Amino acid sequence: FGCCLELSQTLQVSCLCGSAPCLLCGCCPSARNSTISRLLFTFFLFLSTLVSIIMIIPGVEKELHKLPGFCRGSDSVLGVQADVDCSGFLGHKAVYRMGFATAAFFFLFAMLMVCVRSSKDPRAAIQNGFWFFKFLLLVGLTVGAFYIPDGSFTAVWFYFGVVGSFLFILIQLILLIDFAHSWSQLWLRNAGESNAKGWYAALCTVTFIFYAASIAAIALLYVYYTKPQGCTEGKVLISINLILCVIISAISILPKIQEAQPHSGLLQASLITLYTVFITWSALANVPTQECNPTLLLRNSTGSAAAPQTLTTWWDAPSIVGLVVFILCTLFISVRSSDHTQVNKLMLTEESGAGAGAEAAAESGVHRAYDNEQEGVTYSYSFFHLCLLLAALYIMMTLTNWYRPDNSLQVLHSPWTAVWVKISSSWAGLLLYVWTLVAPLVLPERDFS
């Protein structure tokens, strides 16, 4: 602690305005400059998410009415009085504005960092430094977003959030498929090298747990989100995804697939099945029919909840799970490159060596961040910011349960749009997984190792 305090006293200004290496003191382990920069940008996203969560807490939400021009009855903005009574869902409005500010922040950097090839590019200094000014920029965008007039902003930004969330769900599925393949390859390799049956037992156990959880979840979906009479949409959607999951599981163990993909198997299929069930659950939680959706919540402009049963929270369980998945996915994007060349090409990342910077740090004995991008960047700066932009839109929709105001701007309701976006993303993910299995057979001349 004393080491960090002394360093902060001597280099405070330079650390706030300088590069990522300055943000590591001598007490911290050496790390790549590129990794630290990604983690710090991810920290900004998490900070924005935390503020959004605070704003939808009921006690804080009520205080938002005091913001100038934020709702009818409060002070006007630039002398123009708002004509919409939004007192019942101020938190919803606040989350949308936080999402807009965060998305604008990452969009700005995505445009600024186009075609940066190495850390020798002057723009790389902006990517890896000036963190204090970046923080001020994010704060400024956030303050400005709260002065956006209501008008059609919420309705239009809802569709931006829908599109961005759909794309981010696909990114989650890509990362999940890559993680599942890497996991299976690691355990099979360990089993082959050590000749220990324990690895095979662990593989079978985890696969069984994933399938058991999926079957139990599907049974619960039929119990709580369908009725013997009615709820046809829910029955059809659950049944379709159940059939598709059975099909991908069968495909993963076909002899031809096993011959072309020796490491493919039921572990990957079980994990994809479990995630598909989660997406199905999340979609059904947005069905706008109270009889078919026990978690449905309608909020009107007085802040009351219109539902036959007492609801104790504005968040539902799918939103909480979605928040956890969001955190894991963004951290995964920030700290890891894939073991698979094809995924690295798709995600515009690559696994680079430590380079001279690491050797110099090791020789000097100083723990610091080192520049590992002098010869070339290890990830696309623009694509990374685009991923965080989509993540900001996804978490905005998750925190607001994908709800939107009705035409009178008096009631928040769950639209069918959210249901179909989530279901279609699950189908796209299953199709993508099947492609990873059959691609070596369809394109035998290409290297998919």
Automatic annotation (TrEMBL):
Q: Which spans are transmembrane here?
A: 39-60, 94-116, 128-148, 154-177, 198-224, 236-254, 266-284, 317-335, 383-403, 423-443
Q: Which InterPro entries match?
A: TDE1/TMS
Q: Which coarse location class applies to the principal site listed for this UniProt protein?
A: membrane
Subcellular location per UniProt equals:
Membrane
How is this protein named in the record?
A: Serine incorporator 2
Family of this protein? Belongs to the TDE1 family.
* Membrane topology, from the record: Multi-pass membrane protein
CC annotations in GO: membrane
Organism for this UniProt entry: Gallus gallus
Q: Mind listing the UniProt keywords for this protein, alphabetically?
A: Membrane, Transmembrane, Transmembrane helix
